[in-house]
Amino acid sequence: MAITVHCDIVSAEGEIFSGQVETLIAHGHLGDLGIAPGHAPLITDLKPGPIRLIKLGGEEEIFYISGGFLEVQPNMVKVLADTVQRAADLDEAAAQTAVKSAEKALNEQGADFDYAAASVRLAEATAQLRTVQQLRNKIGR
């Protein structure tokens, strides 16, 4: 039997996942983080992007988070996210449209332009696309 750790993924709307995982891979500010049972305690912030769970038996599940925090303790891993969606529920066409819209807004800055808000929209839309592509690659294996 594989070694696992309990994982919870929680957003403002509620808990979206609770169960045993062999590995969790999340997107931090310095790159991807791989968390396995026995990982040292850690608290870090997460960038928008995919969260990959390798569950007991090797089954993989992918979620999209818009940002949040990761807490690792000896017997549990917790993801606290602003918003969470299952990757299968993401709309690739809508994400592509959002990327184009955010890029256009960044290129056509007006007097009342909010650069920070446009940058956040672009980062989130790009992260959603990356999540959809990661799911597509998983299915294509």
Question: How would you sum up this structure, described in words?
Answer:
- The chain has 141 residues and is of the alpha+beta class.
- It has 2 domains: 5-86, F0F1 ATP synthase delta/epsilon subunit, N-terminal (ATP Synthase, domain 1), CATH 2.60.15.10; 89-140, Single alpha-helices involved in coiled-coils or other helix-helix interfaces.
- Helices cover 30% and strands 43% of the residues.
- It has 2 helices and 9 strands; from the N terminus they run E-E-E-E-E-E-E-E-E-H-H.
- It has helices at 92-107, 115-140, and strands at 5-11, 14-28, 31-35, 42-46, 49-55, 60-65, 68-73, 76-81, 84-86.
- Strands 1, 2, 3, 4, 5, 6, 7, 8 and 9 form a 9-stranded mixed sheet that branches.
- The longest helix has 26 residues, at 115-140.
- The model has no long low-confidence stretch (mean pLDDT 84).
Nearest-integer average pLDDT: 84
Helix-residue proportion: 25-40%
Largest sheet: 9 strands, mixed
Number of E-state strands: 9
Low-pLDDT windows of residues: none
Question: How is this structure best summarized?
Answer:
By secondary structure, the chain is an alpha+beta fold. Helices cover 30% and strands 43% of the residues.
